[in-house]
Amino acid sequence: MATIDITEKTFDGTVAREGVVLVDFWASWCGPCRRFAPTFAAASEKHPDVVFAKVDTEAEQRLAAAASITSIPTLMAFRDGILVFSQPGALDPAGLEKLIAAVEGLDMDEVRARVKARAS
């Protein structure tokens, strides 16, 4: 599966999906972003069951601000609509594979229980 571009209008609907959604916040002028892009694209081909989305922070400044993006690239991982990972910095291929495996391996009942406990 190729990566998809998302905008402020499509962000919520994209990350709310069931399953794993990875979102790469990037900009064309950002060297580390350009170096991470092929890694992200290659992983999207290896994991057709995962949604790989990209947000151009220059074009989507309000979305980047709403997501509290202060450094790029920033990678966010959502599982079943819940943000389970957010970290600035580019990952190497092995690091990205490790992240995908960790997100896929989460016990979502436990995650939902923690989210509920924090909200209380």
TrEMBL record:
The Thioredoxin domain, residue ranges: 1-105
Disulfide pairings: 30-33
Catalytic residues, chain numbering: 30 (nucleophile), 33 (nucleophile)
Keyword Disulfide bond in annotation: yes
Top-level taxon: Bacteria
InterPro entries in the cross-refs: Thioredoxin, Thioredoxin-like_sf, Thioredoxin_CS, Thioredoxin_domain
Cited PROSITE patterns: THIOREDOXIN_1 (PS00194), THIOREDOXIN_2 (PS51352)
Chain positions of site Deprotonates C-terminal active site Cys: 24
Entry keyword set: Disulfide bond, Redox-active center
Keyword Heme: no
Gene Ontology terms for molecular function: protein-disulfide reductase activity
Residues carrying the site annotation Contributes to redox potential value: 31-32
Family label: Belongs to the thioredoxin family.
Protein's recorded name: Thioredoxin
Phylogenetic classification of the source organism: Bacteria, Bacillati, Actinomycetota, Actinomycetes, Micrococcales
